[in-house]
Design goal:
GO terms for molecular function: hydrolase activity. This is NUDIX family hydrolase. Helices cover 35% and strands 28% of the residues. It is built from five helices and eight strands; from the N terminus they run αααββββαβββαβ. It has helices spanning 6-24, 28-49, 53-59, 107-119, 187-198, and strands at residues 70-79, 82-88, 94-95, 98-100, 121-133, 146-158, 166-172, 205-206. Strands 1, 2, 3, 4, 5, 6, 7 and 8 form an eight-stranded mixed beta sheet that branches. Helix 1 (6-24) runs antiparallel to helix 2 (28-49).
């Protein structure tokens, strides 16, 4: 994953080397060196972003095993040429229903779960619209690699109910979108979902 910022990319590469070394290294002295490298990478990220050390350790140094990207899903749900968006409770903006993929779920299963939890809709994913590298499309740039899976979904039933994450769910036309949660979905990504919904021959976009 490249962020476009050399300092951040160096920190990410050091963290990846350290994490992989801790996974596969057996010599106790080598493991100590990998821990030192990981600490340096964390301090570089703190210096660059100003994030508190607890957050850096959780998001940047909290993983184990071979370094791989995280994945999230987003559900594109349409009705009368309008797209369903949910109002995020914490950030006071709107997004496609979705979130981090659970470890025990496939991306399809996670899309169904997140759509139900955030929008109250029971859905069936029918098409993978896109699999995108988040840092190539969304802001702010993050040190963690994230892949975003957008699914076109068919509604089987259900309606919105307030929950711990979202406070509202409404359908919007493309020319009347509300304030979007740009780190979750951009106007370009919403437009991409519109185009996929109208094209029976849509080919999955991927980075």
């Amino acid at each position: 994953m490249k962020t476009g910022d050399k300092f951040t990319d160096w920190a990410v590469e050091l963290q990846s080397i350290a994490q992989n070394g801790l996974k596969y290294g057996h010599d106790v002295f080598d493991r100590e060196r990998y821990e030192q490298i990981r600490q340096i990478a964390a301090e570089m990220m703190i210096a660059k972003t100003g994030m508190p050390i607890e957050k850096v350790k959780t998001l940047f140094c909290g993983d184990e095993g071979y370094q791989t990207p995280k994945i999230e899903t987003r559900a594109a749900i349409f009705k009368s040429d309008k797209i369903l968006l949910v109002h995020e409770k914490l950030t006071d903006d709107w997004s496609l229903p979705g979130g981090w993929c659970e470890a025990n779920l496939s991306t399809e299963e996670n899309c169904i779960k997140e759509a139900e939890e955030e929008s109250g809709r029971d859905v069936k994913p029918i098409k993978l619209i896109a699999l995108q590298d988040r840092n190539k499309h969304n802001k702010p740039i993050l040190a963690t690699g994230i892949m975003k899976a957008f699914y076109l979904c068919k509604v089987l039933g259900g309606e919105f109910e307030k929950n711990t994450e979202t406070t509202d769910g409404r359908y919007f036309s493309l020319d009347n979108l509300p304030k979007l949660s740009i780190d979750r979905n951009t106007p370009e990504q919403i437009r991409m979902c519109y185009e996929a919904s109208k094209d029976p021959n849509w080919q999955t976009i991927f980075d």
